Amino acid sequence: MAVAAGREPATLLLAGGRLVNVFTNEVTPADVLLAGRLVAGVYDPDDGQAQQRRERALEVIDLDGAYVVPGLIDGHVHLESSLVSPAEYVRGVLARGVTGAVCDPHEVANVAGEPGVRWLLASTDALPFDVWVTVPSCVPSSPFETVGADFGPAAMERLLEHPRVVGVAELMSFPAVVAGDPEVLAKARLGEARGLTVEGHAPGLSGAELQAYLASGVGSDHESTTLEEGREKLRAGAFLMVREGSVTRDLDALLPLVHEGHAERVGFVTDDRLPHDLLSEGGVDLLVRRAVAAGVNPAYAVRCATLNVARHYGLPRRGAVAAGYFADLAVVPDLEAFAPSLVLKEGAPVAEAGAVLPGSIPPATGGDAVVRGTVRLGELDEAAFALADPGGAARCVVALPNRILTSQTTVEPRVVAGRVVADPERDLLKLACVERYGRGGGVGLGLVTGFGLRRGALGSSVGHDHHNL
Predict the structure, then answer these.
(1) Within a domain: residue 459?
(2) Does residue 133 sit in the same domain as residue 209?
(3) Domain co-membership, 287 together with 403
């Protein structure tokens, strides 16, 4: 207040910029005064006081017409999908103007349970980046899955007391919600009782089923893939999260909704992005950049990745450049390119010219034993992968390009010596799911088409959401 009123000097003056105002959805000339971690005030450079502000500021940066935007907030992300540590994830997105994210850590929860979630919270505590967490609600995501740890309502209740927890994570078991399953609904009540959000996961839900799902208390959805689906969810009152991940790419289909004037009820999210995509395309900044390039009002585009997300989760003093807000912001010479020349986190420079400043990200301090050594396989031999002749047609999973959803079909498998074998000429492969946690889950076998693999084999310890092999 003292800085805003002119009684004390500003720690920094960003002079002669253009503010992307996410309250009024306009771009206006602006001088921005900072007082330590906070924005002290935003002023018209032509108000006759510009020289006085300059003289009173401890430091002045002339922006020469560059844009000042709030630090971007990814509204829904699984940090673990980046395949790197939280600190390295931040190193990859911070210089792009992303200063915060709301993380659903259900990947690490499936692998390491409550201790894994607490590790993620602890490992992000000292970073120059806000990580808020929604507590996983569906571990495992299916009762047929074997996962690495038990994670029930008691663990959820304990984690919901953490100061950086902002909600209950996506209720993935949407059929159970619609059916009124009391156990699933009780998890939603845990968040509501604390005044926290309950996040949604409703792929393809429509009509009465969608209404029932939202009536449970769910407030959002990030699974819409078509314009019609997104519009129906907006009309039903859901906060629509528009996703552009590494596999699920829905921005182009849903962007017309922002053009139609629904910008206040839309948030930009990445969900899952792989490291090569983070490096080449970015995180949630990609959505802003592409929205602006598609002709969306730049203030709308920025708002979808800042103020809207902050308001949805109830994040105080975040998501805008305004008096009393935390000074999380980026200076961007060109909104369409959206390549910040400067990024501030709570008033401190953390990145310049596309690079994180040395010393901004503290070195790791250990404490990660809980997420190491989590692959505990028993003995496996050729017999473990033997698939008996079904004696006719067999069900087969159909992998779909750029989709996380699959379909199914029936096929006549190739059989040799009484056992089903791969038939790459027909794009028909054997599929094995090997329980990796040493909990006696065994090996599940089946058939899959759609991979196009001609020789060799693929193996992965990343298998959403149970992460078996």
Answers:
(1) no
(2) yes
(3) no
pLDDT, residue 1, reads 81
Residue pLDDT, tens place only, 148-184: 888 899 999 999 999 999 999 999 989 999 999 999 9
Interval 136-153: pLDDT, tens: 999 888 888 889 888 899
Mean pLDDT of 66-89: 97
Distances (CA, A) of 53 to 43, 61, 185, 250, 355: 10, 12, 55, 45, 30
In the DSSP assignment, the letter for residue 23 is T
- Amino acid found at 191: G
Q: How far apart are CA 284 and CA 278, in angstroms?
A: 9
Name residue 101's beta-bridge partners: 74, 131
> Which of these, 355, 330, 346, lies nearest to 63 by C-alpha position?
330
* Count of structural domains within the chain: 2
Rounded CA separation 22/25 (Å): 5
- The residue range of the domain holding 389 is 375-449
Amino acid at 324: G
Q: 193: which 2 tokens? A: 């009782």
Query: 199 and 282: one domain?
Result: yes
Question: How far lies 1's CA from each of 7, 10, 77, 244, in Å?
Answer: 9, 11, 35, 40
Is-cis flag, bond preceding 465, omega within 30?
Answer: yes
Backbone angles phi, psi at 18, to 5 degrees: -125, 120
* Owner of token pair 């109830």: 314
3-class state of residue 458 by DSSP: coil
Residue at which a domain ends, from 271, 299, 318: 318
More confident site: 110 or 142: 110
Query: How far is residue 334 CA from its own chain's centroid?
Result: 25
> For residue 79, which of 59, 102, 98, 60 has the smallest C-alpha distance?
102
**Three-class secondary structure of residue 235 per DSSP:** helix
Q: Is the pTM of this model over 0.70?
A: yes
